[in-house]
Amino acid sequence: MKFARTIRSLHPALLLLLAGCATGSMPQNTTHLSTTQCRDLTALRNNEPLTRERNGSELAALRKAGYDPSRWFDPDYPDDLQAAQRRVDVWYQADCQ
Predict the structure, then answer these.
(1) How much of the chain exceeds pLDDT 90, in percent?
(2) Cα(4)–Cα(14) distance, rounded to whole angstroms?
(3) Each residue of 30-51: pLDDT tens digit?
(4) Three-state DSSP string of 7-74
(5) Percentage of the chain modeled with pLDDT above 70
(6) Of the candidates 58, 69, 51, which has an alpha carbon nearest to the alpha carbon of residue 91?
């Protein structure tokens, strides 16, 4: 009975959350990449020398895009990496150009 009461109390919040997901309520002016990430990704795209910082910026962007390189066994590799790379490319076009 306590479980049902808890579910009923969460019901309005869940509806609001689902409505936000359905409408794509993420603000359109939100930036995904920092200024540093934009600078480092631009350098990597221009084939400038690799540095630890540039690699770290790229990895942070890929993680933010949903890629998790720490998984021991990833049955979706390389598809999940490529999907994250495409997402970062879209962000790059929006945030860094």
Answers:
(1) 60
(2) 14
(3) 789 999 999 999 999 999 999 9
(4) HHHHHHHHHHHHHHHHHCCCCCCCCCCCHHHHHHHHHHHCCCCCCHHHHHHHHHHHHHCCCCCCCCCC
(5) 70
(6) 58
